[in-house]
UniProtKB/TrEMBL annotation:
The keyword tRNA processing applies. GO terms for biological process: regulation of translational fidelity; tRNA processing. Keywords: ATP-binding, Cytoplasm, Nucleotide-binding, Nucleotidyltransferase, Transferase, tRNA processing. Belongs to the SUA5 family. Its EC number is 2.7.7.87. NCBIfam families: L-threonylcarbamoyladenylate synthase (TIGR00057). It comes from the Bacteria. One of its GO terms (molecular function) is L-threonylcarbamoyladenylate synthase. L-threonine binds at residues 20, 52, 106, 126, 166. It comes from Luoshenia tenuis. It catalyses: L-threonine + hydrogencarbonate + ATP = L-threonylcarbamoyladenylate + diphosphate + H2O. This is Threonylcarbamoyl-AMP synthase.
Amino acid sequence: MLAAAELIRRGELVAFPTETVYGLGANALCGQAVQKIFAAKGRPGDNPLIAHVCDMRGVEPLVARIPPLARRAMEAFWPGPLTIVFPKSGAVPDAVTAGLDTVAVRFPSHPVAQALIERAGCPIAAPSANRSGRPSPTNAQDVYADMQGRVPLILDGGACGVGVESTVLDVSDGPLILRPGGVTQGMLEQALGMPVRVHQAALKPLEGEARSPGMKYKHYAPKAQVVLVEGAPEAMARRAAQLYDEALAKGNRPCILGTEELKDIYGERAFYPLGKRAQPESIAHNLFAALREMDRRGYDAVFCETVEAQGVGLAIMNRLVRAAGYKIVKG
Ligand code: TXA
Ligand code: MG
């Protein structure tokens, strides 16, 4: 930990665990250090980063002001998987915000992330610690697979709890979820006492201008072709089984990504468990590691069950439609 904090202070990169996914961190107040993140990830320079802080007051030097709605959201959900977009202060380098006049800030709840930020003595800018376009890493091995030779140190904190990235909330024009995540629309509505909108790009390809630059990039994709199957659970499973059989007959190496509840319908077909339909949190927790496992096992055609786009299910479907390049068939 001390070595990790020292690396951050010296302007180097450190990969570290958070409660959502692993991050690739650098001193958020040092433009040169932050540039190294973009190089290591192969990330487009116009996609801004989240600045991570280790207490409520850490946000103050980074922002021009704290809007009242942001304050309420901070009090309800920090520390935790919620990122809030603020008007930025002059202290934040352009490399972090990709030249925007706003800055995204998050106070993670993971003790290792908190200790690293505290000991480094500066806010830490960090995107997910994957190579750009790949599924986010939710354990240290998956960080290593993408980042070996590109980052001097990976802090291993075991598997991440939430498994999908933080919810990104914009409050500049009423509360708007730019990226659904662990803190759900319902949880935000309850805490803020008002309707919270979800950006139209949550489940569809982006039309028009990107409010959040991350929206316009391909994401989360394994090398295998992923096809999502929609419908009532049993019909969905039968359709996935049929698509699997067709792919096998064509000489592909198919696999079904599905839930425990429907597993028996697949019989002897190659199946990888995503979790329990009745516990969508378990699916979020397993999702990215499961997508990565498809590549490791050499599957080239993945047929994946869908879940209802509600609560945590919205965050899951947001990642799945991108992994599938929006390819969805009906059950
Ligand atoms: O859970 C998480 O948020 C993880 C962990 C490491 O904290 N981080 C993460 O970072 O997912 P990244 O870079 O993969 O995603 C950041 C998202 C992108 O969609 C980006 O476009 C958006 O936040 N974002 C960053 N700054 C923004 C800003 N000023 N305005 C709007 N969106 C912004
Ligand atoms: Mg990312």
